[in-house]
Amino acid sequence: MTRLAELIATWFGSGYLPKAPGTWGSLAALPFAWVILSFFPGSYFLLAASGVLLVIGVWASALHSETLGTHDAGQIVVDEVVGQWIVLAVAPFSLLGWLTAFVLFRIFDVVKPWPINWIDKRVSGGWGIMLDDVVAGIFAALAVSLIVFVVGDF
After folding, report:
1. Residue 23 CB contacts under 8 Å (≥ 6 apart), including other chains
2. What are phi and psi of 100, to 5 degrees?
3. From CA 73, how far away is CA 86, in angstroms rounded?
4. Per-residue DSSP letters for 60-127?
5. pLDDT value at 136 more than 90
6. For 12, phi and psi rounded to 5 degrees?
7. Distance from the first to the final alpha carbon of the chain
């Protein structure tokens, strides 16, 4: 089970890519989101997939962290996948829409405004690894929704 947890936690090894593993994990989330939305159009399916992956990610990231003997190792990127899917669920299904969603998620994930930074520092285990990126995804989704409200689909 530790190999399966590692595969999921590192999102099929994308977390092992050099420099900025969170960005690689967010990029690796895109083709999976595209496939989900291509077969099941509508944000509800991507949000449901995010919820399922959140639960699986809590397990995988906790087990992989335990195996490594550390909390929230950089190679664990399943949390970025969930956060990225959350914002993609509300983004226009276009190159510009997805680019905007990607950039905004990365900004919120890196800058970690409150309460993201509070969650990152105070919640431990698999939930701690996953929840700060879930909230970053929600913040980015709100920002994308505001942009769409103001300028329309892009």
Report:
1. 106
2. -60, -45
3. 22
4. HHHHHHHHHTSSS-TT--HHHHHHHHHHHTTS-SSHHHHHHHHHHHHHHHHH--TTHHHHHHH--HHH
5. yes
6. 60, 30
7. 43
| Structure tokens that stand for 103 in this block | 């950039």
| pTM, rounded to two decimals | 0.95
Average pLDDT, integer, range 112-119: 95
Amino acid at 49: A
- How much of the chain is in helix, strand and coil states, percent to nearest 5? 75, 0, 25
> CA 147, CA 112: separation in Å to the nearest integer?
20
CA gap 43, 20 in Å, rounded: 28
Closest to 80 (Cα-Cα) out of 18, 41, 29: 29
The amino acid that residue 52 corresponds to is V
Check residue 86 and give its pLDDT: 98
Domain spans of the chain, in order of start: 2-151
